[in-house]
Amino acid sequence: MSRGRPEFVIGSDQTLDLDGELYDKAESVDAARDRLKLLRGKTHKLHSAVVVAKEGTPIWREVVTASLTMRAFSDAFLEDYLASEGAHALGSVGCYRLEGPGAQLFSKIEGDYFAILGLPLMGLLDLLRRHGELPA
Fold this sequence. Notes:
Blueprint: E1 8-18, E2 21-23, H1 29-39, E3 43-54, E4 57-70, H2 75-85, E5 106-110, H3 113-117, H4 121-130
Antiparallel strand pairs: 1-2, 1-3, 3-4, 4-5
């Protein structure tokens, strides 16, 4: 909806990088189980990108990378986690919701919280303030 100013379109996506190999979202709970076993005890990176277009032309982009280390959780913990999360585990490339029970999978997290959730928010908010879309 336009308020008399040019409209903005915001797009964002995320990839998971484990030892140089990129992963997209798992398509089933079984695939999520395999993904979490692969990540268990290792550090991976989440690359979150956001692009803003104004009147159809990209005017700003940012890629933010976070580093996450999963703890060496037990198979029993993994099964309990998947039983409680179910299809929610399929909503992210890492098969976890950091804002939910997925936080328990980790021993160390470095990076921007919002980028981990999937949208590098701080730079985006700054851009929107500069363009008068948010109060300064």
